[in-house]
Specification:
alpha+beta; five-stranded antiparallel beta sheet; globular; single chain; 46% helix
Length: 126
Amino acid sequence: MLETTTRLDPETAVATLKEEIDAQGLKLVSHINGQANAAKIGVEVPTDQILEVFHPSYAVRVWEACKAAGIDIPLRIHVSGDGDLLRISARSARDVFAPWASPHLDAIGAELDPKLQAILDALEAA
C-alpha cells in the first residue's frame, strides 16, 4: 500500500493530485466525490473521494498480457479524512496485478508504481 498524509484542505489536495496525475503521463478516468454524493441525499460525511487513474496505452498492454486482468484497471487513489488530516492511499500496481501471476503485468506494475508514488509525493511538496 502506498500512503501519505497531508494537512491540505480536500479541494487543494485533490487539485494537486490531479495536476500530478497529468504530470506523470496518466489520465484521470473518474473522480468519485463521496461527500458530494452523500450531500445529494442530505447526509454530511467526512472527506471520502476516489480518483481512478490509468492511461489507454497501459490498458492495451494489460489486455494483451491478460485480458481478465482488465477488471483491475483503472488504479485507484483514495482520499479520506476527518478534521485537519487527510490520508491518501493507493494499492500499488504490483499488488493489484500480483494475483494474475504474469511477468508482463509485473513489468507494467513496476513502471506504474513510481508514477503512483510521485503522485502521492506531490502532496508533500504542495
